[in-house]
Amino acid sequence: MKNKRWIVWSIPLACIAVIAMLRPWGVRRAHASASVERPSRAAAVVLATRRPLESSLRLSGEFRPYQEIDVHAKVAGYIRRIYVDVGDKVKEGQTLAVLEVPELNAQVTGAEADIQRSKDAIRRAENDLHRAESAHAASHAAYTRLKQASAARPGLIAEQELDDSFARDQESEAQVGSAQAALAEARSQLNVADANQQHYAALEAYSRITAPFTGVVTQRDADTGALIQAGTSSNTQSMPVVRLAQYSRLRLVVPVPESAVPDLHIGETVNVRVPSLNRIFKGTIARFADALSDETRTMHTEIDVENPDGTLVSGMYAETVLELKQPQSTLTIPIQALKRNGGGGEVMLVRPDGTVEVRTVKLGAEGNDRIEIVSGLTEGDRVIVGSLSEFQSGEKVTPKPIADVSTSAEGQF
């Protein structure tokens, strides 16, 4: 009975012992086979190259009207008729409203009467001048004849008579001068009356309120019969008639950081994207403040966008991308090939023999998709791009060059 039990237990124990002896040999053989047959992994690599570093700056802002004003009356009066309302499109010079100013009409009539009176005074002065000139001519001729006769026959003409004739000649000459002065004064009065008439006529013309430019009425503040104070009055708060805005062209106002100010150029064309419309419009950098804000260290910049069909509306949010270019050529690699650590970074360099080396590099300026390498690499070095955590230093890899395509500023939207 004991022999049978020993045989039953001895067979499993023998099998376990054989398996234990064969296992190390099998593991060593599997490892040796794997080391011989396992190929090196492929690694996507790009070359460190020299090129101008391109970068772009995305800025956001909102549209404002190209022009927007409150239209006031030049003279005080009651609105006799208003022709526009909110949303109406008007042309330059179009009549918006007409004021009723009765006292101004009376002043214009009075100024015209003054002109007529001045013209009558001129005609009267001209007649007086002609009469004075005629009298002077007669007096002068009489004196001349007496003087000639006295010279021809001394003693024939009494000295008293010569003196009286000479006095009448001088008096008539003085009357001519007086008549000439009166005529000049009458003409001056006509100029004054004409100036007054033009003044009151201009004020009367201001009673017709017109649009200073082509635009849209965005607000109406007065109705028929409302009393409007003159917009030039300093002691009263004058009420505007309407508010007018020009939407055929809009201003996109954006704050440009101090670092990007040197890259701004008047007249440069940029793309403007309006998210609410999902459309891109062409804009032009039209003007900037040429001074930085002390609080934000940004410069007020305006981009003009044409809006002939009225698609864009004032207040719409929009964004633009300004392309910033470095003039010099620098050694760069794709940002995807960099592993950052504090102020510097590391790259995985593939040596000529295919082994991976972790190389510390010093970084410079950063662009849209590439970064400048100040030191640590040379032109033509192969660096792994993407999935850097899957590779280790000293590992053998098969480098697979990939196309290095840089994105442009237009593709940022």
Structure overview:
The protein is built from three helices and 19 strands. It has four domains: 41-53 and 328-412, conserved putative lor/sdh protein from methanococcus maripaludis s2 fold, CATH 2.40.420.20; 58-62 and 245-326, Beta Barrel (Elongation Factor Tu (Ef-tu), domain 3), CATH 2.40.30.170; 74-92 and 212-240, no CATH class; 103-206. The longest helix is centred in the first third of the chain and has 51 residues, at 102-152. By secondary structure, it is an alpha+beta fold. The strands form two sheets. Strands 2-9-12-11-10-13 form a six-stranded antiparallel barrel. A four-stranded antiparallel beta sheet has the order 6-5-3-8. The model is unreliable at 1-9, 25-38 and 407-411 (pLDDT under 50).
Beta content comes to: 35-45%
Q: Low-confidence spans: pLDDT under 50, at least 5 residues?
A: 1-9, 25-38, 407-411
Overall, the morphology is: elongated
The strand count comes to: 19
Biggest β-sheet: strands ordered side by side in the sheet: 2-9-12-11-10-13
Which structural class fits the helix and strand makeup?
Answer: alpha+beta
Q: Counting H and I runs of at least 4 residues, what is the number of helices?
A: 3
Biggest sheet features:
6 strands, antiparallel, barrel
Sequence of secondary-structure elements:
HEEEEEHHEEEEEEEEEEEEEE
Summarize this, please?
The protein is α+β, with helices and mostly antiparallel strands. Helices cover 33% and strands 37% of the residues.
